[in-house]
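Dear support,

We are seeing what looks like truncated structure output for some complexes. This example has two components. We would appreciate it if you could run it in full and send us the complete token output so we can diff it against ours.
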Amino acid sequence: MGLDWARNSPDITVMAATPVYIICSPRPLVGKTLIARLLSEFLLFKNGAVAAFDINLKEPSLLDYLPDITETAEVDDTFGKMALMDRLIINDGIAKVIDLGFHAFDEFFKMSDEIGFMKEAARRGVSPAILFIADSDRLSARFYPILQRQIPPTALVTVDNEYVLRGELPSAFASGKVLHIAALPVFLKTYIDRLTFSFTEYLRSEKDSSSELHQWIRKNYFSFRELELNLILQGS
Amino acid sequence: MAKPVVIVVGADKGGVGKTTVSRTLLDYFSANNVPTRAFDTEFPRGTLKRFHPDHTEIVDITATSDQMKIFDTLNSVGPSVTVIDVRAGLLSPSLVALRDIGFLDAAKSGQITFAVFHILGPSIASLDEIAETANFMIGAKYFLVKNFINNTSFFEWDQATYNSYFHRIKDATEITIPKLNEMAYEQVEVASVPFLKFVANKGQSDEAANYSFVLRGYVRHWLANIWSEFDRIKLTDLVGSGKSGTRGGEK
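Here is the complete output from our reference environment:
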């Protein structure tokens, strides 16, 4: 009924690829967990299932917000890598979301390059999307070209989080796909940062669909739906 | 008719990865469609045979009957390459035996292609073997294989020591074997399959297996690095194959 705009997707029954979203930045506090939360809630709402992995325990953590669908993961040792990657590579129809902490950024992509994750994913009908949160610092500028060499352009998405990048998106990040996340006023940011806050619950319960937060969530859910469709079509 | 090729893989020191390198060679030739047979001198229980049972025979290289089995059949058997995995402590005695039976002379005169992969561990004891082995290498291709079995170095930090070993033998070629992730190595050990089959997620009889994707990725990456070293030294040219392009294992 009221939320059908977000749930309905054309011809989803033909989908063969399982999307895997990796939300990352080499910088702390750029909004990775916020985007992981939004995306996880969207996928849970739309598909009824999502598997989220938190490799972000040194920052505000996805596990604290969505404990029912999130498990912790690590890439510090081979056991951790196996536990995570052997799950991600399975085409089981359940979308995966990884909240990749800045401390694990380097090791994760080094490992995924070494074990040939992108190639194997393509072979198995898994569609990874790397959501790189752009920032104007030197670290982001250094790591982005490394990702560009490793990740096919169709799988690399720059997240322009207005809350982090106050001005224009630097041109170095603007060549591929861009996902824009608008900034919220501080009081709303504080409101959604509460551990008990749920985006989907808010959409369901808030009657005033013209409110700023309602519009913000709707817009982001629409962007995610478009992104998911692209991934499914690429992978199928 | 192509000359028979004999590749000896050995070291006098133990635990430096001789069988591991032999396994990578067998995988490399298999992927390049070069017919190969192997002899495992870890008598009576061979490790190489456990991984490549179809192509490997266990022999006692110090016994005359087994020496005949290897060298008297070089021209008569089908496979063009013979890989001999010489167990620890037997490299020098084996080379003495090869000299005594006239094999080294045959190599010198070009009747046989002879190559030695001398596996070196990062220790002075291991490096001291180089000078001793080099005396037998006239007419042979001599490869000094630096096996990074752990995170140590081969005295590159001490240039004088390094040069005294690695630059003393004029015609020796260096090969580097990178370190393989420990868990990946152990998993292949447990599976008892060639590295290639592990990468392809197959069991000993080509049945589907369920190895970790991560560990398979590490093995694939490691094997590709070693094979690029073999490509660099033009190993297939050495055996008269000279094939290039897509290999079976890269598909």
